[in-house]
């Protein structure tokens, strides 16, 4: 039979180890992140919905370069390729797509996004704005064991270029 001091010492060591191990396995506090992407649409295919004037399904490929600083600096200079499908009536409707991103440190990420686009006529020309949500579905390198999700908004710069501002939360060990 062990003495009371020995039992207390063993209990304290066991409890201390359990606390350390439990703390290490827990996800870190979320970090607020954000930035801006400048994007181009090098490929776009629009197919009208027969019998429904103004209704079109659009599939497009988009390429973007990101800029970010501060806590978001790991995303600065990232290059993204998007594949997107839009269901639009007179330029307004739902957007859904996937983005593949590669960053300076060699990390990659795949993100799913969804949102809505609203088009209005300004001086006889269509002008659009879009907003939605995004979430990383997989990643490699420094993005392999993180949870990323947030919101985005986009607006055009020209017929084939736009900017997209994004923000969200990054949680290390979040998967």
Protein model, in words:
There is one protein chain. The protein has 175 residues and is mostly beta strands. The chain is built from one helix and eight strands, in the order αββββββββ. An eight-stranded antiparallel β-barrel has the order 1-2-3-4-5-6-7-8. Strand 5 (108-122) and strand 6 (125-139) form a beta hairpin. The radius of gyration is 23 Å and the shape is elongated.
What composes the largest sheet? Answer: 8 strands, antiparallel, barrel
Whole-Å distance between the termini?
Answer: 45 Å
- Discrete helix count: 1
Report the count of strand segments: 8
Assign a percent range to the helix content: 10-25%
Identify low-pLDDT runs.
4-25
Q: What would you report as the Rg, rounded to the nearest angstrom?
A: 23 Å
Any idea what the shape is? elongated
Strand content: over 45%
Query: What structural class is derived from the secondary structure elements?
Result: mainly beta
What is the subunit arrangement here? single chain
The average pLDDT score comes to 87
- Strand order, biggest sheet? 1-2-3-4-5-6-7-8
SSE run:
HEEEEEEEE
List keywords for this structure.
mainly beta; eight-stranded antiparallel barrel; 1 helix; 61% strand; elongated; 175 residues; 13% helix
Summarize the structure in short:
This protein is mainly beta. The chain has one helix and eight strands; from the N terminus they run αββββββββ.
């Amino acid at each position: 039979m062990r003495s009371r001091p020995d039992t207390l010492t063993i209990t304290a060591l066991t409890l201390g180890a359990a606390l350390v191990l439990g703390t290490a396995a827990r996800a870190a506090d979320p970090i607020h992140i954000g930035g801006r992407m400048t994007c181009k649409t090098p490929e776009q295919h629009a197919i009208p919905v027969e019998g429904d004037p103004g209704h079109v399904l659009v599939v497009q490929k988009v390429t973007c370069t990101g800029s970010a600083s501060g806590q978001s600096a790991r995303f600065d200079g990232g290059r993204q390729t998007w594949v997107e499908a839009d269901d639009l009536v007179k330029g307004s409707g739902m957007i859904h797509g996937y983005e593949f991103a590669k960053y300076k440190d060699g990390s990659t990420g795949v993100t799913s996004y969804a949102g809505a686009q609203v088009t209005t006529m300004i001086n006889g020309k269509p002008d659009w704005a879009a907003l939605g949500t995004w979430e990383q579905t997989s990643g490699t390198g420094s993005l392999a064991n993180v949870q990323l999700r947030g919101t985005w908004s986009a607006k055009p710069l020209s017929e084939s270029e736009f900017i997209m501002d994004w923000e969200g939360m990054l949680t290390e060990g979040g998967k």
